[in-house]
Design brief:
Keywords: Membrane, Transmembrane, Transmembrane helix. By secondary structure, this protein is of the alpha+beta class. The chain has 37 helices and 21 strands. It has four domains: about 350 residues, no CATH class; about 70 residues, no CATH class; about 230 residues, no CATH class; about 160 residues, no CATH class. The N and C termini lie far apart (about 80 Å).
Length: about 1000
């Protein structure tokens, strides 16, 4: 037995080491897209991230940040190393889990495994663990500083521990393993809640181990108890404990006149005292179940105490202080994600339902001396409701109708509701992700329901032709795309074999793994109830389910051994099955996935943050809007200390009272953002929503007068709502602001050549039918600033979020500066461009890392470059310079743009964006360079049009006329450009191509 344990430990650690080395080699060197920038910035200085927080994750990542030894450029990398190590340890515990489950089948407790039994058990563990190591979803999370790697480790440890308990359940001190599980679960709440989904499976393990007679009724009862415990921790321990603490504090402060926090202290002492008394009672009365339950609850709560970091740091009011949870009610709102809309779960409206009533609620906020009542989140009643609502979002009504084939006025039936659940939520938002990991992935494009983007495939042409079509004329760009990963169903097949083998040989533990698979997969689908057209793919949420299936991939080795044993010796069967399964799963997965999961040369997320900040003049105010134009900037300022003089103001956060208050804070070297009023006027529950009420005012209203009206407490300036409440409102949409020309000139707000175009008054029309804190604050900031600090918006920011001020926005590349100018010849809706600034940024200021030389460019980076950088920076600069007749600078811009082209073509959008660049290259005698770009793009478009025809032949419903017309427009533009050049041979080729496809698709 000692020999077996030693072998088990050594090979487990070897698998973990292999996985960790792979993750370290392929890890991001800086921040990546989405939440990682926020997490790294917050972990570095222990600040507050978005709800519901991840305090333990931040504290552990802060430890890893110290390994950078003061080199701020390495902090992000070392935090990514933290995720890599967590992921490697996850593989270790997965290996031990598989070997424990395999050993239970192969041996009885008292037996010592033979050499070949040991070998096959170790092979099962290695194949399953390494297969999961290199799956698409897990590898993605393993190389970035996000919560999912550490959350996976918690899940792996807990599931392994319950198997540890199961083997030792008859020992006197066996329950210590259950208490350790409870503690880790409590700790995991400070990372992510996904770990709690193991509780039903744990309940079933305990039932099987503690009962000699197993019945369906008993199993169902155990499962129900597990679900109740899960619900108790998820809502009771995490949320309602805080609600009780808040209620105690309200009573102690408002009724007894004691200080803030006194009720919380009393509740805490009461909770601790109750647990101590209960544990003592259970010991004295010899109630073991009560004892272990209370001890486990105590350790869950003890682990949950990591959230104390949130409250402590919120009181310090650091630069990143999301939701400012510095009192019990703001903390409660933070943990319960009150700012986020709640998806209906068991009963709710259909997407075409109309509101019939409002159920108001009350809550409290912290006042100066006591808690003050305020309106809480209202609940609405609807005229159309259904059980188990899946098609509920009015914002996605058109998509629902199209997907379900409903006419304009047709209401969805319950059958439509279930169809959307099974076909879209289960099929597209889970099944597709599952097959990505074990069958193959078409590419990394986001799937919106089409046949050419983001589907699962197998690599078997006949099968894929049925699934997605178009395989006969698959373009080289799609076939050689590094994100096209094909596994020929092999990992899936091995896993299914392992599943069947497991259920045949050990139904109890097979059902436990199946339960884990269900709760970390399908149950999440049901709970999340996601709407279509998500901002990004959400496969990371289901990694636990893929973890469970990987257990069966390991057990698939045993299935192959059993099959081969019918005709071969044990030795031959074990060696053959090990080699076959190793090549068919881990080796195949790593070979297919390496090129698109290697992030070691990526830096665009960091580069974009740098470029945004360097685009701004000193002491600027930069308005951002979304995650990817905000979090990279936070990372650079809070971690690397770059351009900390620029004050970042996120317009999405500016709708919140706490963020408006934080404008008063100095942030690093950036001065406070001044407002012409006390921020208490926009406090929580005050002026959350100000409607537009048309008062027939046709003249322009001064912005200072309008702000005074919007912030007035006089009921003469308010309107009574149906609820009887009085609200401020927007009485006019035509707004104006006087311009201090001397301040504009003195502060170099406009280029010297534009001084004569500065207007006396800025006049604009407000575009929306309501005013939130964001728009009100934006106008107030601009008024109070009086051109002292430069004001910018990122090019991510939608025009509708600029309060109508986009009329005075001047394009400087990836930022747009507010300038009070009216340029001659500028048409309504046309964006003015500061060509000199554009040129300087495009050619000399911006950094793009290795973008143009990388073997693979991820979809988020491509989206950014194709939708914002190419058109907003390089095409815009090239066009304006040519209009001014400055061909020398236009040439520099065009050459720089070509340097940014990836090694391979990815999209039609890129081909269209480069038409103007090609035109510039021809006009500046860069003939060879222009020809190369033309050939590259024409070849890509031609391949796509051939593919579109093949796809339509296989899947007639997949005929995308919009993309075909788009492709023809690209060909036509290159045809026109070449017509005016001396490149007769290339022109003839392009013209022939254009004519051929135009006639084929348009019949001209």
């Amino acid at each position: 037995m000692k020999s077996y344990n030693t072998t088990n430990n050594l090979i487990g650690w070897l698998c973990a080491l292999i996985a960790t080395i792979v993750y370290l080699l392929t890890a991001d060197r800086f921040n990546s897209w989405w939440d990682t920038g926020e997490f790294i910035a917050s972990a570095n200085k222990l600040q507050i991230v978005h709800q519901p927080g991840a305090p333990l994750f931040l504290m552990i990542q802060n430890v890893f940040s110290n390994l950078a030894m003061g080199d701020v450029s390495k902090i992000a990398f070392w935090m990514n190393v933290g995720s890599a190590l967590c992921s490697g340890l996850t593989i270790l515990f997965l290996f031990w889990t598989i070997t424990a489950l395999t050993r239970k089948v192969v041996l009885r407790k008292s037996e010592q495994p033979t050499t070949w039994e040991t070998v096959q058990i170790m092979l099962a563990g290695a194949v399953g663990a390494l297969a999961y190591s290199f799956t698409d979803t897990f590898w993605y999370s393993a190389v970035e500083s996000e919560v999912y790697a550490m959350s996976s480790l918690c899940t792996a440890v807990v599931f392994w521990l319950i198997l540890k308990w199961e083997r030792r359940a008859d020992e006197p001190d066996a329950n210590r393993w259950l208490i350790l599980i409870a503690y880790i679960m409590g700790l995991s709440i400070g990372v992510h809640l996904l770990n709690l989904l193991t509780i039903p499976a744990i309940a079933l393990v305990i039932y099987f181990r503690k009962n000699q007679l197993i019945t369906w009724k008993g199993g169902a009862k155990a499962l129900l108890i597990g679900i109740v415990i899960l619900a108790f921790i998820l809502w009771g321990a995490i949320q309602y404990s805080l609600r009780l603490a808040a209620s105690f504090d309200v009573f102690f402060v408002n009724q007894l006149g004691l200080g803030f926090g006194s009720g919380i202290v009393f509740f805490f002492l009461l909770l601790v005292g109750g647990l101590v008394w209960g544990i003592r009672y259970s010991v004295l009365r010899i109630k073991p179940i009560l004892n272990i339950s209370l001890l486990s609850l105590s350790f869950v709560c003890f682990g949950y105490l990591s959230f104390a970091m949130i409250a402590i740091r919120a009181h310090a009011d650091p630069p990143l202080n999301n939701n400012a949870p510095d009192n019990v009610y703001s903390f409660l709102g933070y943990v319960t994600r009150v700012q986020y809309a709640k998806e209906p779960l068991l009963k709710g409206q259909t997407f075409d339902a109309q509101v019939t009533g409002v159920k108001p609620s009350e809550t409290y906020k912290k006042g100066e001396h006591k808690y003050e009542k305020m309106s809480g989140v209202s609940e609405y009643t609807f005229d159309k409701e259904t059980l188990f609502p899946r098609v509920y979002s009015s914002k996605h009504a058109d998509y629902y109708r199209s997907y379900l084939g409903l006419s304009a006025n047709e209401s969805p039936t319950f059958a439509d509701n279930l169809q959307f659940f099974f076909k879209y939520q289960l099929g597209n938002m889970y099944g597709r992700y599952f097959f990505w990991n074990f069958a193959g992935r078409q590419n990394d494009e986001q799937n919106y329901g089409g046949y050419s983007d983001g589907n699962w495939i197998s690599g078997i042409k006949a099968v894929d032709n049925v699934l997605v079509g178009g395989q006969k004329d698959l373009p080289d760009a799609m076939r050689s795309n590094p994100s096209r990963n094909v596994y020929y169903f092999l990992p899936l097949f091995i896993g299914v074999m392992g599943l069947i083998w497991h259920f045949r040989r050990d139904k109890r533990f097979a059902s436990i793994v199946a339960l884990l698979f269900f709760f970390t997969g399908v149950a999440i689908v049901i709970y999340l109830n996601q709407t279509p057209i998500q901002p990004r793919e959400r496969d990371y949420a289901y990694a636990g389910s893929f973890y469970a299936f990987s257990i069966w991939i390991g057990l698939g080795v045993m299935a192959v051994v059993d099959f081969l044993r019918r005709k071969a010796s044990m030795r031959t069967s074990v060696i053959t099955s090990g080699l076959v399964c190793m090549f068919a799963a881990p080796i195949l997965l790593i070979s297919e996935n390496w090129d698109d999961h290697d992030r070691s040369d990526r830096s665009l997320a960091r580069d974009m943050g740098y470029n945004y900040l360097m685009s701004c003049e000193p002491n600027a105010i930069l308005f951002t809007y979304a995650d990817n134009d905000t979090f990279p900037l936070w990372y650079l300022q809070e971690v690397e200390g770059i351009r900390t003089d620029v004050r970042i103001v996120n317009l999405s956060y500016l709708t919140s009272h706490w963020y408006v208050r934080q404008l008063n804070n100095q942030v690093n070297e950036a001065a406070p953002v001044k407002l012409p009023f006390d921020t208490s006027k926009l406090d929580e529950g005050i002026r959350d929503y100000l409607p537009f009420v048309d008062r027939g005012i046709n003249d322009y209203v001064n912005v200072d007068t309008l702000l005074e009206f919007l912030l007035s407490g006089n009921r003469v300036n308010q309107v009574e709502m149906q609820s009887g409440e009085w609200f401020n409102y927007l009485p006019a949409k035509k707004i104006q602001m006087s311009v201090d020309k001397e301040a504009v000139i003195a502060n170099n707000v406009v280029p010297s050549a534009w001084k004569d175009y500065v207007v006396d008054k800025m006049q604009w029309e407000y575009p929306q039918n309501h005013v939130s804190r964001a728009e009100l604050s934006l106008m107030a900031i601009i008024l109070e600033n009086n051109w002292q600090r430069p004001i910018y918006f990122t090019n991510y920011t939608p025009a509708e979020n600029m309060a109508g001020l986009d009329k005075y926005i001047v394009d400087e590349g990836i930022v747009r500066r507010l300038m009070p100018v009216s340029l001659p010849g500028q048409e309504d809706g046309q964006l003015a461009g500061n060509v000199e600034k554009l040129y300087q940024n495009a050619v000399h200021t911006f950094q793009w890392g290795k973008y143009g030389s990388m073997n693979f460019v991820d979809v988020d980076s491509r989206r950014l470059m194709e939708n914002f950088i190419y058109p907003d920076v390089y095409v815009q600069a090239s066009q304006l310079l040519k209009q001014q007749g400055d061909l020398a600078k236009a040439k520099e811009v065009a050459i720089k743009a070509v340097e940014l082209l990836p090694k391979r073509s990815y999209s039609l959008n890129e081909a269209l964006s480069y038409t103007d660049i090609v035109d510039t290259l021809y006009k500046t005698e860069e003939i060879e360079l222009a020809n190369n770009v033309v050939k590259r793009n024409i070849s890509f478009v031609k391949d796509y049009l051939d593919y579109a025809e093949s796809l339509a032949n296989d899947k007639p419903e997949a005929l995308d006329t919009r993309k075909i017309r788009y492709s023809l427009a690209v060909l036509e533009m290159y045809d026109r450009i070449l017509e005016g050049t001396g490149e007769k041979e290339l022109y003839a080729q392009v013209n022939k191509t254009f004519t051929h496809y135009r006639d084929k698709y348009l019949g001209e």
